[in-house]
Amino acid sequence: MIPRILKVGRAAGSTTDAARQVMPAPSEQDLATAYELIYVTAAGKDYRAEAHEVAALIRRRNPTADSLLDVACGTGLHLSHLRKVFAHVEGLEVSDAMRQAAVQRLTGVAVHAGDMRDFQLGRTFSAVTCLFSAIGYAQSVDELHQTLERLAAHLEPGGVVLLEPWYTPDQWTPGTVHPGVAGDGHRHVTRMCYSHQSGTTSTMTMHYMLGEPGVGIRHWTEEHVMTLFTNRQYRRAISRAGFRDVEWLPGWRDQRPRIVAVKP
Q: What is the pLDDT of residue 1?
């Protein structure tokens, strides 16, 4: 569930012997910087609009909802807007680099280190979200069930879960390339992603280049492995976790839908 670093490249922009050597694996700060720039600038998502729609969907089913947990919250971009709508919000993230970026962004908000398959925070919320298809990082049907059970366990009665599934096997198109470029006027990052498939497993190999004046250029390759669950498998997991009033809604940008359900 944490992206695996496959390869590290060389530094550029210096003539020293050290710069010609293969550099160590990217630091947590390197990763956080790259994720921040890519997800803010190049992901093509309107986090503010999505957050307000999330809040509306939740309040339509639970008008008094005042607390929210965002599971697999990434760099905290949805939470940065949801915190303005709900009295209390928290996040959960397994990637240290993404959690570090979320903590920096969300002053005063608890962002827990934890795995969506087995986390236990000791409290419940009015709503629990799992967005941007993070549920696809579950590596088996059993892990999908475990995750849905954990989401349900952290909801109060009448609480709402909002889930954004990953692609199904029929929706996935292997062999595609997706580029992304972002920057903040000082640092610059380029990401090139190649997608392939083996059975019900989708793998995205992502090549990052992070450039910073006075530092040079860092290059590394990540591998993201996500499961192509069927709609039937999602339905079974949601039902087994005890949810009711399940609705399948259109997605924000592509074929991926959103699922909203209520805990009795």
A: 55
β-pair type (244-249, 110-113) = unpaired
Q: Which residues of the chain have pLDDT under 70?
A: 1-25, 42-43
Which pLDDT does position 233 carry in this prediction? 98
Cα–Cα distance, 20 to 163 (Å, whole number): 46
* Integer Cα distance of 228 and 248 in angstroms: 17
* Pairwise CA distance, residues 198 & 135, whole Å: 18
pLDDT at 12: 41
* Nearest-angstrom CA–CA distance, 250 and 239: 20
What pLDDT was estimated at residue 2?
61
Coil, strand or helix at 159 = strand
- The 3-state DSSP class for residue 239 equals helix
| The model's pTM | 0.90
Whole-number Cα distances in Å, 249 to 162, 163, 240: 10, 10, 20
Distances (CA, A) of 250 to 22, 91, 112, 151: 46, 25, 30, 21
What was the pLDDT predicted at 14? 39
Quote the CA–CA distance of 142 and 180 in Å, as a whole number. Answer: 33
Instruction: Give the total residue count for the chain.
Output: 264
**Reduced to 3 states, what is the DSSP secondary structure of residue 199?**
coil
* 180, 184, 188, 189: CA torsion to nearest 10: -30
Angle between helical axes of 96-105 and 28-37 (0-180°, round to 10)? 60
Q: Which two tokens stand for residue 221?
A: 């390759």
Token pair listed for 239 = 């039902």
